[in-house]
From TrEMBL:
<protein>
    <submittedName>
        <fullName>Peptide transporter</fullName>
    </submittedName>
</protein>
<dbReference type="Pfam" id="PF13614">
    <property type="entry name" value="AAA_31"/>
</dbReference>
<dbReference type="InterPro" id="IPR050678">
    <property type="entry name" value="DNA_Partitioning_ATPase"/>
</dbReference>
<dbReference type="InterPro" id="IPR025669">
    <property type="entry name" value="AAA_dom"/>
</dbReference>
<feature type="domain" description="AAA">
    <location>
        <begin position="20"/>
        <end position="200"/>
    </location>
</feature>
<dbReference type="InterPro" id="IPR027417">
    <property type="entry name" value="P-loop_NTPase"/>
</dbReference>
Length: 278
């Protein structure tokens, strides 16, 4: 169950939408995308619940660096562990970080919990059930639920994909990035068949430097390869400003950062529009 204090300001939409950032490849920018997208939505006045399902807790650590003082009170019962360990019927109380951003923090214990999860019936649908069990409360409090996931195809990732209105596959330029995109597409189509669902997904590029060959190659693949181009939305440029616990929006107002903000605003707007319709 979910425990949530009523916020002073009202949410803007009459429903909530769920987005997961995923691809089965490490370090592509899944977390960086989600962190910046959450900020983008929150600045537009939307209420955002961020859930960190990666047991390496990178997203939680970013927020912890940024909002040190709010983090003292995090207890296991309020992390993603409580959400997945449905046996315990615990009440999850998201951490209020800003007026518009709440966090269900990541938890290292989730790694061991996966071994227990394997033997559970309906283990792939714990998150789906949690969303429906807490539907009214979530509806009252949030416009968007953004889930960071890890580079894996384990039960936790399956949970996040099945619970999503939209999955964003984040690809970075490297030899096997197209392979990783195909892998995500195949995995989603397997889940569609196995669970009789139709998971929506889109692909974005990340860490793109248009002067580099590897970036040019990735963009060509994203724009031209049949089966990929139909789902390609755009890219996030490679900028050192993404390597900090501030979002790009809070980075020093250098002219190249402003260009990046204009560029990713366009991308984020299109992601939001697709998510809203999903
Ligand atoms: N657009 C970008 N420009 C420059 N650096 C970036 C960009 N996006 C992400 N990074 C950096 O790349 C590294 C990996 O990013 P991130 O942690 O978001 O990837 P991830 O896909 O979530 O990784 P993991 O698979 O470990 O969860 C981080 O150090 C991050 O700061
Ligand atoms: Mg990550």
């Amino acid at each position: 169950m979910l425990k949530n204090e009523k916020s002073n300001t009202k949410k803007l939409t009459d429903t909530f939408k769920v987005l997961t950032s995923n691809i089965n490849k490490g370090g592509t920018g899944k977390t960086a995308f989600l962190y910046n997208f959450a900020y983008y939505l929150s600045e537009k006045g939307f209420k955002v619940l961020v859930i960190d399902t990666d047991d390496s807790k990178n997203l939680t650590n970013l927020y912890e660096d940024k909002f040190e003082d709010n983090f003292e009170e995090i207890k296991t019962e309020n992390t993603v562990m409580a959400l997945f360990n449905s046996d315990l019927e615990k009440v999850v109380e998201p951490l209020k970080l800003t007026e518009n951003i709440d966090l269900i923090a990541g938890d290292k214990k989730l790694e061991n919990f996966k071994k227990i999860l394997v033997s559970k019936i309906n283990r792939e649908k714990i998150l789906v059930s949690w969303l429906s069990d807490n539907y009214d409360e979530l509806l009252e409090n949030y416009d968007y639920i953004l889930i960071d996931s890890e580079n894996s195809q384990d039960d936790i990732v399956v949970n996040t994909l099945l619970a999503s209105d939209l999955v964003i596959g984040v690809a970075e330029s490297s030899d096997n990035s197209v392979y990783a995109i195909n892998d995500l597409q195949q995995f989603i189509s397997q889940l569609d068949k196995a669970f009789n669902v139709d998971i929506q997904y889109k692909i974005i590029g990340n860490k793109i430097d248009t002067r580099e060959k590897s970036s040019k190659d990735l963009i060509s693949a994203l724009e031209e390869v049949e089966g990929i181009k139909e789902n390609y939305l755009g890219y996030i440029p490679k900028k050192t400003a993404f390597q900090s616990s501030n979002t790009i929006y809070e980075a020093p107002r250098k002219s190249n950062n402003l260009d990046t903000i204009i560029h990713i605003n366009k991308l984020f707007k299109s992601i939001k529009e697709i998510l809203d319709k999903a």
